[in-house]
Amino acid sequence: MQKRHAVRDYNDEPLTAEQVNTLDEAIAAANAKQGLDIQLIHDVDDAFGGCPTHYGRFKNVHNLIALIGTDSPSNEAILDEKVGHAGQLLALTAVSLGLDTSWVVLHETADHDGAWTLAEGERMPAAIALGHGNRPGRPHRSKPAKELGAVETGDYANAPDWFKRGVEASMLAPSALGKQPFRFTLLADGRTVRAEALEGVQPEIGLGIAKLHFELAAGTDSFVWA
Fold first, then answer.
1. Tell me, what is one Gene Ontology molecular-function annotation carried by this entry (predicted)?
2. Which of 66, 69, 2 is nearest to 40 (CA)?
């Protein structure tokens, strides 16, 4: 989590067979767990398939994790949160393999140049560019922990260590425009955590990313989600 920073300028060094195989395995596991259709596109001329980006200037993107799934009939936000959670785990996997990454939102994903497959009813809320960066990424600014975490029946300073670790890890979570539109609240029972998406750009994607960071740092045996 501490090593992953957004990188948008890549060189032409291809992924190794080991990197591709490890990512394929991680994607298969994420798809099985979350019911998604995430796809890896690698070593192509334009991994964006000609699609414009929502934000950020990217160069030489030859590899992409396309975060694809089907919306819940009752709530589109569920898919966004799922791809945030699953996608960030894949981004961290890529970093562990020595690769650089960046989240990206693409427009017109149904009218692309064939880099990925969208089945009927599927949507691609976001994607992850990856490869070998021409320069390292830089840490992003974060809100203070007390703005991202709260205790329902007390002061944040007296929260259990596992809760503080989770909130501090969420400070490292990337989000659209760096706004971090999420909040964690420890409820009165001292074990249940409510995670909320706040107003912002792609807030549910940001919440999914932040929840993964929280889980990794706090330990899923320490708490339950509300």
1. oxidoreductase activity
2. 66
Distance CA(142)–CA(18), nearest Å, equals 34
Task: Extract the tokens encoding 216.
Answer: 């990794």
Query: Mind listing the pLDDT tens digit for each residue in 120-129?
Result: 999 999 999 9
Collapsing DSSP to helix, strand or coil, 178 comes out as helix
Q: What is the pLDDT of residues 84-101, one digit of tens each?
A: 999 999 999 999 999 999
Instruction: Report d(CA 122, CA 149) in Å as an integer.
Output: 34
Spatial contact of 97 and 51, defined as CB atoms under 8 Å apart: no
Please give the C-alpha separations between residue 178 and each of 57, 135, 142, 175, in angstroms, as whole numbers.
16, 20, 8, 5
Name the residue among 48, 38, 95 with its Cα closest to residue 70. 38
Burial of 71 (0-12, 13-18, 19+ CB in 10 A): middle
Tokens of 155: 């002061």
Rounded distance between C-alpha atoms, residue 44 and residue 59, angstroms: 13
Structure tokens at 133: 């960066």
Spell out the domains of the chain, with CATH numbers in brackets. 17-131 (3.40.109.10), 145-225 (3.40.109.30)
Q: pTM of this prediction?
A: 0.94
Alpha carbons 64 and 128: distance in angstroms, whole number: 6
- Closest to 91 measured CA to CA, from 121, 60, 62, 64: 64
Alpha-carbon distance 37 to 132, whole Å? Answer: 25
